[in-house]
Amino acid sequence: GGDGGEERQGDLALKLLTWPHTGKLDEAVELVLNKCSDMLLEYCLVFLGTSLERWKGLLDLFLERLRIGSPLTQSFSSLYKSILEHVVTITTPEEFMGLLPANGSLEFFLPLIEQSCRLLLARDLETDLSTPAHRTLSH
Description:
Elements: H1 4-18, H2 25-35, H3 40-47, H4 52-67, H5 74-89, H6 93-99, H7 106-129
Helix pairs in contact: 1-2, 2-3, 4-5, 5-7
């Protein structure tokens, strides 16, 4: 029973849960981007983990969309930025800059590069001072 919409949604959920375990992670991420982009970051946090290679693949997917002429909508731009903001937290500044497009807008990327450097300094300072992880640094 049920209507076709429920069945299609069930198919989508099944694909999104099983594809990452069957070697189709890239296809699953693209499916989330196409069908339910508002949950892309949460989905990627679960299935991409801390793999720089996987996050680079996601960022490359965004850049490919821009190259083929997808309109840079506000939601697309903010989604891309939210993904970069997460990637900043799991990379060093050198790694992060290696993930950015060579022809990117300095105005767009500079605050993220600065954040990456601040995070590195904070981690280094925390290590040097051997402070407990629950303390925060003010800037």
